[in-house]
Amino acid sequence: MLPRWLRSRIEIETRKFLLAGDGGAFDFSRPEGEPALTDPYSVSWRVFKNPVTLLIGGITAVILELAEPRIRSGVWEHTNFRADPEGRLRRTGLAAMMTVYGPRSRAEAMIARIGRLHRRVSGITPAGEPYSASDPELLDWVHATAAFGFLEAYRAYAHPLSAGQASQFYAEGRTAAALYGALNAPDSGASMAVHLAQMTPKFEPSPVIFEFLTIMRDAPLPPRGARFAQAMLIRAGVEILPLLVRERLGLGPELGVRPWEKPLVKAMARFAERTPLAGTPPVEASLRLGLPANFLYGGRVV
After folding, report:
1. 2 falls within a domain
2. What is the pTM of this model?
3. Which end of the chain, C or N, has fewer beta carbons within 10 A?
């Protein structure tokens, strides 16, 4: 167990990072009894509770997004990621938490708002190809990358999951995916493999991907005392990319996790796996549904 003062500090910084800014006043423990888009006994609730693997998987997901030229142009030309990476990551993190743990009414309203914003985003890639953030193909891929990244990071570093559990995870995400407009998002491990195989020939290397990795390495992510591990966690995200994808993007072995780092990453992820942080969305959502605060961390329902 962590010393009480250190645990308290991590809780404060994690809440501040996730809940500051847009929507920061929202209490995931209210309204009492209102269900989320996914069931608390789902694989999704289990996977999304781990902040270490969410960070790692988020790196994986964004690389897969930026590998696709139309998505890369949309992200890099229409967001403030370069100017305010911490704010962008905070908003993305809150959206993920709301989608999985938020009360259904609030989650649906948030997704509708994001959809309206997406409809405003369009343009032309440097190669002259038009793109739109509301393009169903691109929406499917963005959803697929997030699901793949979070799931594979959890399986690699926190806890193994069976093929059946992995397919269940993809299937659970279909409700939220449809609300976002991703009507053909993967619904199983097999369909994700097919989707990845179809998209990979469209990938191309880009300096933007390396700029993203540099920004993430330097961004002030919580907890502040763990900055020494930040670069290691970013390399862990590169490591779980499929080998063919890494080769196409020019992400060589030097950008992956070092052999001696892997046990440290696993230790961090497994510690997070059994450590509930007071006031965070997974804990508050459990309380909202009448479950113990440690429900997702090995606690029994009483």
Report:
1. no
2. 0.92
3. C
